[in-house]
Amino acid sequence: MRPIHKSNKLAEVCYEIRGPVPEKARQMEEEGHKITKLNIGNLAVFGFDPPDEIVHDMMVNLPNAAGYTDSKGMFAPRKAVMHYTQGKNIRGVTIDDIYLGNGASELIVMAMNALLNTGDEVLVPAPDYPLWTAAVSLSGGTPVHYICDEQQDWYPDLADIRSKITSNTRAIVIINPNNPTGALYPVELLREIIEIARQNQLIVYADEIYDKVLYDEAQHVSIASLADDVLCVTFNGLSKNYRSCGYRSGWMVVSGEKSHAKDYIEGLNMLASMRLCANAPGQFAIQTALGGYQSIKDLVGPGGRLLKQRDLAYQLLTDIPGITCVKPKAALYMFPRLDPKIYPIVDDQQFAYELLAETKVLIVQGSGFNWINHDHFRVVFLPNTDDMTEAFGRIARFMEGYRKRHSLGY
Fold this sequence. Notes:
Layout: H1 20-30, E1 36-37, H2 52-61, H3 75-87, E2 98-101, H4 103-115, E3 121-126, H5 130-138, E4 142-149, E5 155-156, H6 158-163, E6 169-175, H7 187-200, E7 203-207, E8 232-237, E9 250-255, H8 262-274, H9 280-291, H10 296-300, H11 305-318, E10 323-324, E11 333-334, E12 337-338, H12 348-359, E13 361-362, E14 364-365, E15 377-380, H13 385-407
Parallel strand pairs: 1-13, 3-4, 3-6, 6-7, 7-8
Antiparallel strand pairs: 2-9, 4-5, 8-9, 10-12, 11-15, 14-15
């Protein structure tokens, strides 16, 4: 029979967080191996439960959740998001500027689909959360990666951004707090990015899904709060701040200068209508979450579980010879560097395969985040301290063996 091939639109699309190495891990699990999964920020499997009041309100409202909602979402949760944006000092947002989605991921793809034509370019950070690169490519656009500088706390390299703007550049993506590096951008840097967008008439897409997962009393500033004359589209949701990944409850906020973007907004409305609506049970969680007790502060503050685990993971990783890491100020991840002189890795996916096979620990190779070299990987610091100590100990022993093999010329 004639083979059935996937669409050519998928040629440049990859999502290594759930790619070939995790597939190998799944096969190993089926064979009876226990895999420690440090590859994905799925909080529930590590014992991080959503707030009880969110679960309760979803259960109570489930009988009212069987019908379609407005294509942009129910009024009450959108009103709660509007109040949230006001608290973030994002001005001029109305109910009509807010779209609820099946997680922020669906809305990111929607935002790219509504914007891009073949040949359009979008500036995306490297390293990035790979959904952004995939969404641009799948929408017919071209992702152009600007460098985030590890020597400068993983901040975006402004000169590199400027050098990569062309007549085809439509937008710039900012992931802040950042996944995979854990960087948190200062307001001065955000103002510089806004000025670049202003001068070049770019849309700013701001992925702020980790805006409450902050350590060491750090403060997050929404880039959309810094300008009223630049079109900004901000993404957020319940997955991380409220440990509700599976509820698939996110939102997108259009703010700033919208008068010249009426046609684009019409496209967003069309796509929102085509998917009918976001899941209704997840919408019922939003108002309760945003208006309730912010228990994430207990996890990231002094004595909090996430803070303790971040500090332990940083210590365990940087104690391994040849591994350095910028200590994350936010989010759930570390993006450590392997000294190429000690770990001469040619294919970091193969490296991740070998690590998995020998240690039963699953990581994501740095190239899976569109990083330019094969010298990084990403881990989550979500396991409890005992499990994390065990897992990182296995990684350390693997690295010791790797160093010995290299020193012997194998």
